[in-house]
Design a protein that fits this description.
The chain is of the alpha+beta class. It has 2 helices and 3 strands. About 0% of the residues are buried. The chain has 2 domains: about 35 residues; about 50 residues, no CATH class. The chain has a 3-stranded antiparallel β-sheet, with no helix packed on it. The structure holds zinc ion. Zinc ion binds next to helix 2.
Length: about 90
């Protein structure tokens, strides 16, 4: 994960990423893929189920999975009800 120094840098990286995604989707569409029902959703991956770090131990004692340690962000891509994970 990159360390970001300022909000303007974060914005630059975000807009760069958006352009990359847009380009990729346009290429997919050009090659004949139907993207009309494509949906993109951001999610955060949690640590492995057997992780023993403080956050995960705490989540286990409190029985609340939302307290688990988090890894980097991931994206879920949905097409027509079918689920696919990308990383
Ligand atoms: Zn953990």
């Amino acid at each position: 994960m990159l360390k970001l120094r300022s909000p303007s840098q974060q914005e630059q990286i975000l807009s760069l990423a958006m352009r990359q995604i847009e380009k990729m989707l346009k290429e997919m569409q050009t090659s004949g893929k139907d993207l009309s029902r494509l949906k993109l959703k951001k999610f955060q991956k949690t640590h492995h189920i057997d992780c023993k770090c403080k956050l995960c131990e705490n989540a286990k004692t409190k029985n609340d999975l939302r307290l688990r340690g988090l890894l980097e962000d991931g994206f879920k891509v949905y097409v027509a009800g079918e689920k696919k994970n990308t990383q």
